[in-house]
Amino acid sequence: MKDSRITVMFPINYLRAGGAEQQLLELVRGMDKARFEPLVVSFHPGGIIEPEVRKIPGAELICLNRKGRCDFLVLYKILQLLRQRKVDVVQPFLTPASFFGLLLAILCRTPVKILTERSAQRRKRPGARLYSKALDFLSRFADWAVSNSEAGRKYLIKRHINPSRIKVIHNGLNLSRLSYDKEDVEQVRQKLGVPPEGKVVGVMASLFPVKDHVIFLRAAAIINQTMPHTRFALLGDGPLRSYLENLSQELGLASKVIFFGEQQNVGTYLSTFDMAVLTSRTEGCSNSLLEAMALGKPVVATDVGGIRELVHHGETGLLVPSGNAEAVAGAVLSLIHDPEAARAMGRRAREHVASQFSVEKMVQQYQSLYVETLRQKGRRRELSAG
């Protein structure tokens, strides 16, 4: 006999250190376990945040151990879980987990089906386009499509999803994740070889094409010409690491750039930055920008997707065109040359994030969505939004 808690299944590809994965972690961690039973279903094992998910009391993580793209046994495994656990809500994150999760929830007649949109633009890879088109069709059967930005909402409307079934729930920031020790920060700066008068310009993003680290490195080369004491840090990992390391050498930056890879203690590494940069080609609600802003760092970011919902140009940071290394370099140099303005931007950025992007607000919005939708379907009349 199933207890009175709401079972929410979260299918996801990997539990790596990406923005969507971090938001899933915070959502599961923050859910009221007396009322909700979160079930995280990862397609592949490993990932830097997998141990964090496993440690959450009242939550469960099941890995499907998918062997490759042609391993469709995961379909049967998910179907069995949906039936055995009597899942009330399915909310997958990222493709292909979104495609498989939503398809099987429809076939299994799971009461509530939620599509999540973490970006604001289609990916250009052939496989991604195929999944997106399939999701466009499956979305007709979803109860809600949730975007983490207004830009994402507009993107969903362009995909012909009914606007009345779209919700915007911005990312929530867990400030405890940003704790740091000053001595550790100083050790990282020493590792970077920062001169006393030097600055650290950093980017925190997975090393994938959409993040456009090439533009960051080309901007670094321009900055290095006039501010040779500046150091550049890349926090994150991904398939482009070797290519980007080679590019930094070709640009004459080998002694000025360091690749830190994935790190759990992001507060320490972000605190070594004097300013944070994001050069993405598209974004929804960027975790890395929110975290840098929460630490009072002035930011420079490309004006794409939902970025302008976080960064108010000239107030909480600077916005630049996508794909323009000269514009990125110019914005960074303007902040280096005007430290008082940079500090003021950092202070306003910290206040903006604290007031608008709390993890508690995000969790409550999702929980209310689950409860209200179940009530409307008449499945859980005894539930209260509480």
Task: Give an overview in words.
With 386 residues, the protein is of the alpha/beta class. It folds into 2 domains: 186 residues, Glycogen Phosphorylase B (Rossmann fold, 3-Layer(aba) Sandwich), CATH 3.40.50; 182 residues, Glycogen Phosphorylase B (Rossmann fold), CATH 3.40.50. A 7-stranded parallel beta sheet has the order 3-2-1-4-5-6-7, with helices on both faces. Strands 10-9-8-11-12-13 form a 6-stranded parallel beta sheet, sandwiched between helices. Helix 6 links the parallel strand 6 and strand 7. The longest helix is centred in the last third of the chain and has 18 residues. It is elongated. The C terminus is likely disordered.
Keywords, separated by commas or semicolons:
seven-stranded parallel β-sheet; 2 domains; six-stranded parallel β-sheet; alpha/beta; elongated; 42% helix; Rossmann fold; 386 residues; 13 strands; 14 helices; disordered C terminus
Quickly describe the structure:
By secondary structure, the protein is α/β, with parallel strands linked by helices. Helices cover 42% and strands 15% of the residues. The longest helix has 18 residues.
Question: How large is the share of residues in beta strands?
Answer: 15-25%
Number of extended strands: 13
CATH class of the largest domain: Alpha Beta
**What string, H for helix and E for strand, traces the elements in order?**
EHEHEHEHEHEHEHEHEHEHEHEEHHH
CATH-derived topology of the largest domain: Rossmann fold
- CATH architecture field of the largest domain: 3-Layer(aba) Sandwich
Number of helices: 14
**Order of adjacent strands in the largest pleated sheet:** 3-2-1-4-5-6-7
Instruction: Name the poorly predicted regions.
Output: 380-386
Mean pLDDT: 92
**In the residues, how many domains can be counted?**
2
**Termini, distance in Å?**
24 Å
Form type: elongated
How would you classify the helix and strand content by structural class?
alpha/beta
Provide the CATH superfamily of the largest domain.
Glycogen Phosphorylase B
Query: What is the alpha-carbon Rg in Å?
Result: 21 Å
State the helical fraction. 40-55%
User: What's the story with the biggest beta sheet?
Assistant: 7 strands, parallel
